[in-house]
Amino acid sequence: MKNNQTREDVLEIIMDIFVVEIRFIGREEISPATHVTKDFKIYKDDITIFLNAVEKRFDMLAPAGEWEKIETFNEMADLVMLYRGVKIPFKRPKGILSWVLNCIIR
Predict the structure, then answer these.
(1) Dist CA 11 CA 22 (whole Å)
(2) Alpha-carbon span 103 to 106, nearest angstrom
(3) Residues 24-34: b if buried by 16+ CB within 10 A, e if exposed
(4) Hey, is 7 helix, strand or coil?
(5) pLDDT for 35-76, tens place per residue?
(6) Which of 34, 41, 58, 62 could pair covalently with 84 via S-S, beta carbons 3.0-4.6 A apart?
(7) Whole-angstrom Cα distance, residue 20 to residue 77?
(8) Three-class SS of residue 87?
(9) 39 CB contacts (<8 Å, ≥6 apart)?
(10) Under 8 Å CB-to-CB from 3, ≥6 apart: which residues?
(11) 27 and 19 Cβ atoms separated by less than 8 Å
């Protein structure tokens, strides 16, 4: 993933991903100031799928606490500009849960 995209490019890509993932909202219905959850009745699962698609597209993994602060597409573009290409390391649990994760990941 190239990091030479402008903030405006990133914003447009994010809004396009939203339209593709949510499916029932047209591109003409959203703007950079659109509140991602309050302006439309969107289920939590749909938002999770959308955020996963954004993280995958920009090769990033932002801390969960950061996503919880986001309300508009403008704010989301700022977060992507900050974290694109950055992955927060995953800490493996110890004990039986570690064994189960090893079985699943392999």
Answers:
(1) 16
(2) 6
(3) eeeeeebeeeb
(4) helix
(5) 988 888 888 889 999 999 999 999 998 887 888 899 999 999
(6) 58
(7) 17
(8) strand
(9) 30
(10) 84, 85
(11) yes
Q: For residues 80 and 77, what is the distance between their CA atoms, to the nearest angstrom? A: 5
The dihedral through the CA atoms of 60, 56, 69, 13 has a sign that is positive
Global pTM value: 0.77
Distance CA 100, CA 69 (A): 32
3 state SS for 16-69? HHHHHHHCCCCHHHCCCCCECCCCCCCCHHHHHHHHHHHHHHCCCECCHHHHHC
Query: Which tokens sit at 62?
Result: 């932002």
